[in-house]
Amino acid sequence: MQSTKTVRLVAMLLTFGLFGSNANAVEIETFTQPYRSVDVPAAEMGVLTSVLVEEGTPVRSGQLLAQIDDRVLKSSLEIAEAAMRATSSRRAAEAEVALSEEQRQSYRELLRDGNATQREVDRAETNYQQATARLQTVREELEMRELEYKRISVQLAHRRIESPIDGVVVRIEKEAGEFVSPTDPIVMKVVQLDRLRAIFSVPVSLIGTLEKNQRTQVRVSGSDQPIEATIETISPVVDAESASVRVSVRIENPQGRILSGVICRWDLGADPT
């Protein structure tokens, strides 16, 4: 609230020209925040069998964070795999097709020599078509078994709760033994801190001096030295109440020396580097 009031006051002074010739020397402040903040959900409902991290644990993208009970699905997967690998019905159908094809060719030759009737040839042709249809049915059943195997595999993967980003676990919402439901799926929160974001409300009269990807400097609490930053986004919309524009600034923080949640000040009168 204090920051918003400051911006309003600055905007009014700029509007009425009370800053005089040094009107651009404006310092605004906000707070640093994680570059990304993700509430990690469970894709499937069930009971958590384990939570493998705690608050403050650094994690990598794709790292297993927690596990939902998957014993029933694992058994289903074994059954689906056995069904998928059962090929005796296909081999029998292929043998039947080969035999009926041989008989069909034989009857055709006998018909040319006058030793078979057209009816016998037609019957052999029908047997071949039926055998071919049975083989196609077996192949389709095997394809369905393979798809069922893949479906269960995906369900099993969804019971693994993995980190979507490189970051740090900052809050655990559910412990092992608790039930995760579609109406309450969040298990924990992970934030990215190797870079930070600061969102400023910049007086509209100063927006013309800023542009996306422009390098600048900010100051944060606990540090006397200016810190390099980059303008990441400039809102195309002006907040009518405060006569300001939302500007997001990115701060690289690979060593984690800058804390999230501390005051960040931006002197808009300073020349960008």
From TrEMBL:
<dbReference type="InterPro" id="IPR006143">
    <property type="entry name" value="RND_pump_MFP"/>
</dbReference>
<feature type="coiled-coil region">
    <location>
        <begin position="90"/>
        <end position="148"/>
    </location>
</feature>
<dbReference type="InterPro" id="IPR058625">
    <property type="entry name" value="MdtA-like_BSH"/>
</dbReference>
<protein>
    <submittedName>
        <fullName>Efflux RND transporter periplasmic adaptor subunit</fullName>
    </submittedName>
</protein>
<dbReference type="Pfam" id="PF25917">
    <property type="entry name" value="BSH_RND"/>
</dbReference>
<dbReference type="Pfam" id="PF25954">
    <property type="entry name" value="Beta-barrel_RND_2"/>
</dbReference>
<feature type="domain" description="CusB-like beta-barrel">
    <location>
        <begin position="201"/>
        <end position="269"/>
    </location>
</feature>
<keyword id="KW-0175">Coiled coil</keyword>
<feature type="signal peptide">
    <location>
        <begin position="1"/>
        <end position="25"/>
    </location>
</feature>
<comment type="similarity">
    <text>Belongs to the membrane fusion protein (MFP) (TC 8.A.1) family.</text>
</comment>
<feature type="domain" description="Multidrug resistance protein MdtA-like barrel-sandwich hybrid">
    <location>
        <begin position="37"/>
        <end position="189"/>
    </location>
</feature>
<keyword id="KW-0732">Signal</keyword>
<dbReference type="InterPro" id="IPR058792">
    <property type="entry name" value="Beta-barrel_RND_2"/>
</dbReference>
